[in-house]
C-alpha cells in the first residue's frame, strides 16, 4: 500500500483481519506494509475487504504457502493485525522465521549482485 495513515481506514483494516481470521504485522505510515498469514479462504476474504477500502496504490505483491515450521510465528498466532514500529522491526520478525529474503525480493529491496 502506498501509505496507511487514515485512522478510520486502519481501524477497518484491523477489523477485517479479525473477521477473516488472519494474523499479521503492519507497518503504518509511508509506505504502509502488511504481511499476514491464514488459510486460503481467509486470505481471499481479507484481500477482498482491503481492496474495498480503495487505497489508491494497493498492491498485493505475493501469496505463498508458509513452511510448516514458520506457520503461526508471524504474529505469534494472534488473530488480527499487530503494529510494528518501522520497516527494520518488520524485517527482523521475518528474518526470525526465514522469510527475510522472500520479503526483500518482493519489496524490491535487494541491492542485486
User: Terminal Cα separation, in Å?
Assistant: 27 Å
Number of strands: 3
Q: What shape does the CA trace take?
A: globular
As a whole number of angstroms, the C-alpha radius of gyration is 13 Å
List low-confidence stretches.
Answer: none
Instruction: Profile the largest sheet.
Output: 3 strands, mixed
Strand order across the biggest sheet? 2-1-3
Q: Assign the structural class, choosing from mainly alpha, mainly beta, alpha/beta, alpha+beta, or little secondary structure.
A: alpha+beta
Give the overall average pLDDT: 86
Secondary-structure element string: HEEHEHH
As a percent range, the share of helical residues equals 25-40%
Content of β-strand: 5-15%
Number of helical regions: 4
Per-chain topology:
Layout: H1 7-20, E1 23-27, E2 33-37, H2 40-51, E3 80-83, H3 87-96, H4 100-106
Helix pairs in contact: 1-2, 3-4
Summarize the structure.
It is built from four helices and three strands. With 113 residues, it is α+β, with helices and mostly antiparallel strands.
Summary keywords:
alpha+beta, 3-stranded mixed sheet, 38% helix, 113 residues, 4 helices, 3 strands
Report on this model:
This protein has 113 residues and is of the alpha+beta class. Helices cover 38% and strands 12% of the residues. The chain has a three-stranded mixed β-sheet with strand order 2-1-3, with helices on one face. Strand 1 (23-27) and strand 2 form a beta hairpin. Helix 1 runs antiparallel to helix 2. The model has no long low-confidence stretch (mean pLDDT 86).
Amino acid at each position: 500500500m502506498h501509505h496507511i495513515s487514515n485512522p478510520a481506514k486502519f481501524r477497518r483494516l484491523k477489523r477485517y483481519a479479525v473477521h477473516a481470521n488472519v494474523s499479521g504485522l503492519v507497518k503504518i505510515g509511508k509506505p504502509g506494509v502488511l504481511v499476514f498469514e491464514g488459510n486460503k479462504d481467509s486470505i481471499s476474504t481479507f484481500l477482498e475487504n482491503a481492496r474495498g477500502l480503495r487505497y489508491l496504490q494497493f498492491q498485493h505483491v505475493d501469496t505463498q504457502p508458509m513452511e510448516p515450521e514458520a506457520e503461526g510465528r508471524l504474529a505469534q498466532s494472534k488473530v488480527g493485525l499487530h503494529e510494528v514500529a518501522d520497516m527494520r522491526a518488520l524485517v527482523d520478525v521475518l528474518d526470525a522465521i526465514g522469510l527475510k529474503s522472500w520479503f526483500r525480493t518482493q519489496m524490491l529491496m535487494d541491492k542485486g549482485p
